[in-house]
Amino acid sequence: MDWKRLVQFALLGSGDLEQYAILLVRVSIGLFFAISGAKKLFVAHGTQTMYETLVAAKVPFPRLMTYFVSGVEFVGGLLLTVGFISSLACAALSVDMLVAILTTKLSAMPKRLSPPIWLDDFLYLPEVLYVLFFIWLICAGPGKFSVDYWLAGKLLS
User: Residue 91: is its pLDDT beyond 90?
Assistant: First the structure.
Protein backbone atom coordinates (compact mmCIF):
# COMPACT_ATOMS: atom_id res chain seq x y z
CA MET A 1 0.00 0.00 0.00
CA ASP A 2 1.30 3.41 -0.96
CA TRP A 3 0.72 5.48 2.20
CA LYS A 4 1.74 8.72 0.55
CA ARG A 5 -0.99 8.35 -2.11
CA LEU A 6 -3.53 7.34 0.53
CA VAL A 7 -2.76 10.41 2.65
CA GLN A 8 -2.84 12.61 -0.46
CA PHE A 9 -6.26 11.18 -1.40
CA ALA A 10 -7.55 11.67 2.17
CA LEU A 11 -6.40 15.31 2.22
CA LEU A 12 -6.98 16.41 -1.39
CA GLY A 13 -9.41 13.95 -2.97
CA SER A 14 -8.89 12.71 -6.49
CA GLY A 15 -9.19 14.73 -9.65
CA ASP A 16 -9.51 11.43 -11.51
CA LEU A 17 -12.88 10.82 -9.83
CA GLU A 18 -14.21 14.36 -10.11
CA GLN A 19 -16.03 13.77 -13.41
CA TYR A 20 -17.96 10.88 -11.86
CA ALA A 21 -18.95 13.01 -8.87
CA ILE A 22 -20.19 15.76 -11.19
CA LEU A 23 -22.14 13.20 -13.22
CA LEU A 24 -23.71 11.67 -10.11
CA VAL A 25 -24.80 15.03 -8.66
CA ARG A 26 -25.95 16.49 -11.99
CA VAL A 27 -28.03 13.46 -12.99
CA SER A 28 -29.48 12.90 -9.50
CA ILE A 29 -30.61 16.48 -9.04
CA GLY A 30 -31.75 16.71 -12.65
CA LEU A 31 -33.91 13.60 -12.30
CA PHE A 32 -35.31 14.82 -9.00
CA PHE A 33 -36.44 18.12 -10.53
CA ALA A 34 -37.70 16.53 -13.76
CA ILE A 35 -39.82 14.04 -11.82
CA SER A 36 -41.02 16.65 -9.33
CA GLY A 37 -41.93 19.07 -12.10
CA ALA A 38 -43.69 16.34 -14.09
CA LYS A 39 -45.75 15.39 -11.05
CA LYS A 40 -46.81 19.03 -10.62
CA LEU A 41 -47.56 19.43 -14.34
CA PHE A 42 -49.18 16.15 -15.30
CA VAL A 43 -50.77 14.77 -12.10
CA ALA A 44 -53.93 16.58 -11.01
CA HIS A 45 -53.23 16.21 -7.28
CA GLY A 46 -49.67 17.53 -7.73
CA THR A 47 -50.93 20.51 -9.74
CA GLN A 48 -53.58 21.29 -7.11
CA THR A 49 -51.08 21.05 -4.25
CA MET A 50 -48.68 23.39 -6.04
CA TYR A 51 -51.51 25.85 -6.74
CA GLU A 52 -52.63 25.81 -3.09
CA THR A 53 -49.05 26.36 -1.93
CA LEU A 54 -48.70 29.41 -4.18
CA VAL A 55 -52.08 30.81 -3.07
CA ALA A 56 -51.10 30.39 0.59
CA ALA A 57 -47.79 32.16 -0.12
CA LYS A 58 -49.71 35.01 -1.79
CA VAL A 59 -47.77 34.60 -5.04
CA PRO A 60 -49.37 36.70 -7.78
CA PHE A 61 -51.10 34.86 -10.64
CA PRO A 62 -51.02 31.51 -8.80
CA ARG A 63 -52.63 29.48 -11.62
CA LEU A 64 -50.12 30.75 -14.20
CA MET A 65 -47.22 30.45 -11.78
CA THR A 66 -48.20 26.85 -10.97
CA TYR A 67 -47.55 25.87 -14.56
CA PHE A 68 -44.57 28.18 -15.01
CA VAL A 69 -42.68 26.98 -11.92
CA SER A 70 -43.56 23.35 -12.59
CA GLY A 71 -42.41 23.76 -16.20
CA VAL A 72 -39.11 25.29 -15.10
CA GLU A 73 -38.54 22.34 -12.77
CA PHE A 74 -39.50 19.77 -15.42
CA VAL A 75 -37.56 21.25 -18.35
CA GLY A 76 -34.64 22.43 -16.20
CA GLY A 77 -34.40 18.98 -14.63
CA LEU A 78 -34.39 17.25 -18.03
CA LEU A 79 -31.73 19.62 -19.37
CA LEU A 80 -29.59 19.10 -16.28
CA THR A 81 -29.97 15.32 -16.46
CA VAL A 82 -28.49 15.14 -19.96
CA GLY A 83 -26.13 18.06 -19.39
CA PHE A 84 -27.46 20.40 -22.08
CA ILE A 85 -27.21 24.16 -21.40
CA SER A 86 -26.49 23.09 -17.85
CA SER A 87 -25.46 26.49 -16.50
CA LEU A 88 -28.70 28.07 -17.72
CA ALA A 89 -30.72 25.19 -16.22
CA CYS A 90 -28.86 25.57 -12.92
CA ALA A 91 -29.47 29.32 -12.90
CA ALA A 92 -33.21 28.88 -13.58
CA LEU A 93 -33.55 26.18 -10.94
CA SER A 94 -31.59 28.33 -8.46
CA VAL A 95 -34.03 31.19 -8.94
CA ASP A 96 -36.89 28.70 -8.49
CA MET A 97 -35.39 27.52 -5.18
CA LEU A 98 -34.58 31.04 -3.98
CA VAL A 99 -38.19 32.09 -4.58
CA ALA A 100 -39.38 28.97 -2.74
CA ILE A 101 -37.13 29.84 0.19
CA LEU A 102 -38.33 33.46 0.29
CA THR A 103 -42.05 32.75 -0.19
CA THR A 104 -42.67 29.60 1.84
CA LYS A 105 -39.66 28.33 3.78
CA LEU A 106 -38.48 31.40 5.69
CA SER A 107 -41.96 32.21 7.00
CA ALA A 108 -42.33 28.63 8.24
CA MET A 109 -39.14 28.77 10.30
CA PRO A 110 -39.55 29.24 14.06
CA LYS A 111 -39.27 32.83 15.28
CA ARG A 112 -36.93 34.26 17.92
CA LEU A 113 -34.14 31.76 17.47
CA SER A 114 -30.56 32.60 18.32
CA PRO A 115 -28.48 33.31 15.19
CA PRO A 116 -26.60 29.97 15.29
CA ILE A 117 -29.83 27.98 15.73
CA TRP A 118 -31.55 29.97 12.98
CA LEU A 119 -28.59 29.38 10.65
CA ASP A 120 -28.66 25.67 11.50
CA ASP A 121 -32.37 25.49 10.64
CA PHE A 122 -31.86 27.53 7.47
CA LEU A 123 -28.97 25.38 6.21
CA TYR A 124 -31.07 22.29 6.94
CA LEU A 125 -33.58 23.32 4.26
CA PRO A 126 -33.20 21.12 1.15
CA GLU A 127 -33.76 24.15 -1.07
CA VAL A 128 -30.61 25.77 0.33
CA LEU A 129 -28.61 22.64 -0.43
CA TYR A 130 -29.98 22.57 -4.00
CA VAL A 131 -28.89 26.18 -4.54
CA LEU A 132 -25.40 25.31 -3.30
CA PHE A 133 -25.24 22.33 -5.67
CA PHE A 134 -26.38 24.53 -8.56
CA ILE A 135 -23.68 27.10 -7.77
CA TRP A 136 -21.10 24.29 -7.68
CA LEU A 137 -22.30 22.86 -11.00
CA ILE A 138 -22.19 26.30 -12.65
CA CYS A 139 -18.60 26.73 -11.42
CA ALA A 140 -17.40 23.16 -12.09
CA GLY A 141 -19.27 22.76 -15.36
CA PRO A 142 -21.45 19.82 -16.43
CA GLY A 143 -18.54 17.40 -16.69
CA LYS A 144 -17.17 15.26 -19.49
CA PHE A 145 -20.28 13.06 -19.58
CA SER A 146 -22.64 15.75 -20.86
CA VAL A 147 -24.08 17.07 -24.08
CA ASP A 148 -22.49 20.45 -23.27
CA TYR A 149 -19.00 18.90 -23.17
CA TRP A 150 -19.58 17.08 -26.47
CA LEU A 151 -21.04 20.21 -28.08
CA ALA A 152 -18.20 22.43 -26.86
CA GLY A 153 -15.72 19.96 -28.37
CA LYS A 154 -17.52 20.16 -31.74
CA LEU A 155 -17.92 23.93 -31.72
CA LEU A 156 -14.42 24.79 -30.49
CA SER A 157 -12.42 22.36 -32.65
Answer: yes
